[in-house]
Amino acid sequence: MHNYEFIKNRHDELKSPFHDFAISVVHILPQCSPLLKKGLRQEFYMLNNRCRIKGERVVLNIENPMQDFYGKRINVQAIVGVNGSGKSSLLEIIYRIINNLSCLLSRGKRRNASESLYYVEGLFAEIYYVIDERLARISCLGNKVIFHLMDEKPVVLTAFEGDKVYEEYVLMENFVEWARNNLFYTIVTNYSLQAFNANDYFFEECYKLKIGEKKDEFGDNIWINSLFHKNDGYMTPIVLNPYRDNGVIDMNREHRLTIYRLAEIMIYAEKHQRDFMEGYRLHTISYRFDGSFLDEKFIEENHIAVDKYRNYKVGNNQRNDIGPLILHGYGMGGRLDFNDMVHRTAGMYLIYKTLSIASKYPAYEEFAEIGNLSCFQKHVDGGLQEQIVRLVNAILKDKSHITLKIRQALHFTEALLDGNLQPKDLLNSRFPYGWYMERVAPDKKLRSMRDIQEYLPPSFFTTLIEVDRFVDGRRVNEDPIPIERLSSGERQYLYMFSTYIYHILNLLSIQESHRVKYRRINLVLDEVEICFHPEYQRKFVNELLGYIKRLYMNRNASFNIMIATHSPFILSDIPQCNILYLEDGCVPDTSKFKNPFAANICDILYQSFFLKNGFVGEYARRKINDIIRRLLPNGYFTEKWEEQFNLLMEMIGDPFLRMQLQQLYEDRRNRHAKNRD
User: Fold this and answer.
1) How many angstroms separate the CA atoms of 218 and 119, rounded?
2) Which of 156, 178, 228, 437 stands 20 to 30 A from 252 (CA)?
3) Residue 238 CB burial class (10 angstroms; 0-12, 13-18, ≥19)
4) Residues 255-298: pLDDT tens digits?
5) Phi, psi torsion values for 466, nearest 5 degrees
6) Which residue range(s) make up the domain with 568?
7) Residues 237, 255 contacting (CB under 8 angstroms)
8) What secondary structure, in 3-state letters, does 478-493 show?
9) Are residues 176 and 31 in the same domain?
């Protein structure tokens, strides 16, 4: 067994500022399985004008007129077409390519907290993308995945040799810097109930890559399930949102996550005197102690006996098992009173979270043997003691999102032990965010998003967010409005934006040398307009760009934003050169299309969404066409239909259409008058 060779290319040495990033072409090869390409019927799909097709080759266009059009290091593009035109099928080709690449790169690495990745067979397709004026290509060619960056030696990764898994793997230290310079991270959102249903992918052949073993029976292997991964430290360069368990979205879980994420975002917006959501302003964020939070972690998830967990005590000098050693490492040894509910919860949370990090994340693989929550009472010998000390020290040095909740708990616990927080004040009622900050971080301004995250109350507090509604600058609600009482469209708006911000900030928080610091981020927004009023659709692109810029995300990263949409309002923010039109799996002739950027909405509907039967409802269209047929020279038009005509004329809202129908009616009357004469 040997490792893949990752060539240090000239691009590595440039230390690129990540100025230019765009997904440009998807190429589907003829050998691709019909099961995978579905209704897609041609080979090259151009997402923008960064490249051109020359013969059978994709060639980079050096000039980029759209450079910084949407802001520094931001590119926005769209995929449009009617239902069934191939938008989702094309995006899934991209996901499969990234999945197969990820499967090969992660082969041999631990994924305890995430599902195994599965290699999809029968995929022959390529992604072309531009990075800093150079053309990169990821080619999935059945049994192999090849990465090629313009003039550099390709990296070739092999999945199988015959019916056996190929005996090569990638060392993390060889991969990290290469991936940073050459790859990108994809964040996908699709809230459609019909999307990513596991049963839809059941018959796709995919296999787990166990080095040195034969192909397993693909049977129940479903590759898409693994891309809703959690707790892999962003090792796999793609994540699908919202999290689905075999196609099922737990909306209660989504809501809890959203409230947690929104709290930090709304605090940031208020500190900078900005409204996070038009028409609403933050009223208050408050918290309540949840003493049962850890019951779920210890008892329900890890099946630890109730009495073993609830009767566990850490004495002042007790250091013979894992729990006290962990607390001692954090400087809490002998300082917490386990007879007090708040003290005990803080201590047990630090123990739980420390062991959880050790068990889940690839970066902490060396501590995997103690990463089991049931070990919290395990007796410690000399070797194990040293390992726990190293684990706690590694966590304290790690300033990424992985250890964020540990840091939140430590800030809380220090304030508790210093007497700035009193257990009695936390047990009996809610308390506002400002009250908490005065006691935990009294001398800190906390203006950046990362600083705000750092000092939020730990996870064993529940969050309540209340807002006020404003119309024309005047508050219209008598009582504060909990987030839960907002409309489904408003909540969808909050869910979506908080998801993007959360993942992006986590990616940008990665600083360690042993993890990939992705600085190119591909946002895929599929069915983005679900639940959105037209006004929300009209403002969506501008709002998304605003968040990226206001939070300075594009200062240290480049963004490619791919939007699959049916909304003419969204499309009116995107120029024609950045739109891929699809019709029946093919790209139609767009040479006579008007540029949709800032165009009339009706024109966009007609040409971009292929509304060949006009813009009125189908029932109204048929009703009017029926009347027109009867008004024509050979039509059957009785007194009964004259009554119908008069009724329709009162209902029709379009004055031009009304005038035309009236003219037809007058023509018919004149014909009848002549016939009588």
Assistant:
1) 10
2) 437
3) buried
4) 888 888 888 888 888 887 777 777 888 899 999 999 888 887 88
5) -120, 140
6) 18-237+516-608
7) no
8) CCCEEHHHCCHHHHHH
9) yes
